């Protein structure tokens, strides 16, 4: 048995932001992650840019949308790369980064006596009583062996991305997911048009699923690497993606010159059924009821049309209320990242990295308020 003040499940960007906020608040913190690495989807899909970090306002270029941990990370990465990290793509502003630098930032700042990281650890049981989680049981992998440990805490944060602690699950697969391949090399030719064009011909020739034609390639100018991204519907599509990649290599000489480094270990779905229509608030809502603001457009990965965007109006961001970061049944369960309880429209805007960092931080801030309101003695503040 191990006792903590806060247990965060999921070490993606939202969970890491929750963990760092909790540690900096003086909480004995545990972070539980089923994989062997930090970073979740952003790590496994080789993300190149932090989206949702800025207000996308031409009169105030690269203005942070949500102060706090977002400002800290922005300052750190800008010091690493200078102004070249500030990248505008179409109508939106992004921050370019190198994976090892971002995850290294979290690793460095989490190395404190009050932090414990359980990697390759899967949450297999939740014990609740009187509408409060008392403990969770995790199965830790050690080679071929597994060991079960009970962890106790006063608050729990679900940053799994699939609503593990709630009744909701990733049943709604209405949007396409992502699967990526990382490539290395130097090219003088832009492949952004020829790859999807050639992919369409391959899909037609071999009578493959039409939605697989939505393929993109992006270049990380900081690492000099390419990311080939497939839009997929389920895990069975991975083998087909690899087949399409092989055919693309045979048809596009420049692509074949790039060295395969690795592919995503999993596919990552975007749909999530923890949708709460009643959490959609208007822009006149009092600031104290708003936890996070998202200026990022809604992204819907339509199976028939590909990515569809809807931009928010100037000075009218998508607002995420405080109530969206709290489970509606379990008193001491807080939500971050893709797990927040928002409308489908807001969810389609809020799942990007910059907004997930902010919801991860705010989940802990609201958990602290819960502890103080309930006169809980766990915190040494």
TrEMBL record:
PANTHER family linked to this entry: COB--COM HETERODISULFIDE REDUCTASE IRON-SULFUR SUBUNIT A, FERREDOXIN:COB-COM HETERODISULFIDE REDUCTASE SUBUNIT A
InterPro entries for the chain: FAD/NAD-bd_sf, HdrA-like
Domain of life, source organism: Bacteria
Pfam families: FAD_oxidored
Gene3D superfamilies tied to this protein: FAD/NAD(P)-binding domain
Transmembrane segments: none
Sorted UniProt keywords: 4Fe-4S, Iron, Iron-sulfur, Metal-binding, Oxidoreductase
Protein name: FAD dependent oxidoreductase
GO molecular function: 4 iron, 4 sulfur cluster binding; metal ion binding; oxidoreductase activity
Record carries keyword Zinc-finger: no
């Amino acid at each position: 048995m191990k006792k903590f003040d806060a247990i965060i499940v999921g070490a993606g960007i939202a969970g890491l932001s929750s963990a760092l906020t909790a540690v900096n608040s003086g909480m004995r913190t545990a972070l539980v992650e089923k994989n062997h690495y930090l970073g979740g989807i952003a790590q496994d899909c080789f993300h190149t840019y932090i989206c949702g970090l800025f207000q996308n306002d031409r009169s105030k270029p690269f203005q942070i949308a949500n102060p706090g941990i977002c400002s800290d990370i922005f300052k750190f990465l800008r010091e690493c790369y200078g102004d070249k990290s500030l990248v505008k793509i179409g109508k939106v502003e992004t921050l370019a980064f190198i994976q090892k630098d971002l995850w290294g930032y979290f690793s460095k700042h989490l190395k404190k006596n009050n932090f414990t990281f359980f990697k390759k650890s899967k949450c297999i049981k939740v014990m609740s009583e009187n509408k409060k989680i008392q403990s969770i049981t995790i199965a830790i992998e050690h080679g071929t062996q597994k060991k079960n440990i009970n962890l106790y805490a006063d608050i729990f944060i679900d940053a799994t991305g699939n609503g593990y602690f709630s009744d909701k699950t990733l049943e709604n697969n209405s949007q396409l997911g992502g699967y990526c391949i990382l490539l290395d090399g130097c090219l003088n030719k832009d492949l952004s048009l020829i790859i999807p064009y050639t992919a369409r011909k391959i899909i037609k020739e071999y009578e493959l699923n039409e939605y697989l034609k939505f393929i993109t390639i992006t270049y990380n100018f900081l690492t000099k690497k390419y990311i080939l991204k497939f839009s997929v519907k389920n895990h069975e599509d991975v083998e087909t993606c690899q087949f399409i990649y092989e055919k693309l290599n045979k048809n596009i000489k420049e692509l074949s010159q790039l060295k395969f480094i690795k592919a995503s270990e999993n596919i990552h779905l975007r749909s999530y059924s923890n949708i709460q229509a009643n959490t959609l608030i208007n822009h006149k809502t009092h600031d104290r009821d708003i936890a996070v603001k998202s200026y990022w457009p809604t992204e819907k990965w339509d199976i028939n049309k590909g990515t569809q965007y809807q931009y928010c109006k100037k000075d009218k961001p998508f607002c995420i209320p405080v109530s969206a970061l709290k489970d509606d049944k379990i008193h001491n369960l807080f939500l971050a990242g893709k797990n927040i309880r928002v409308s489908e429209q807001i969810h389609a805007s809020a799942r990007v990295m910059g907004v997930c960092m902010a919801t991860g931080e705010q989940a802990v801030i609201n958990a602290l308020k819960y502890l103080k309101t309930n006169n809980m003695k766990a915190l040494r503040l």
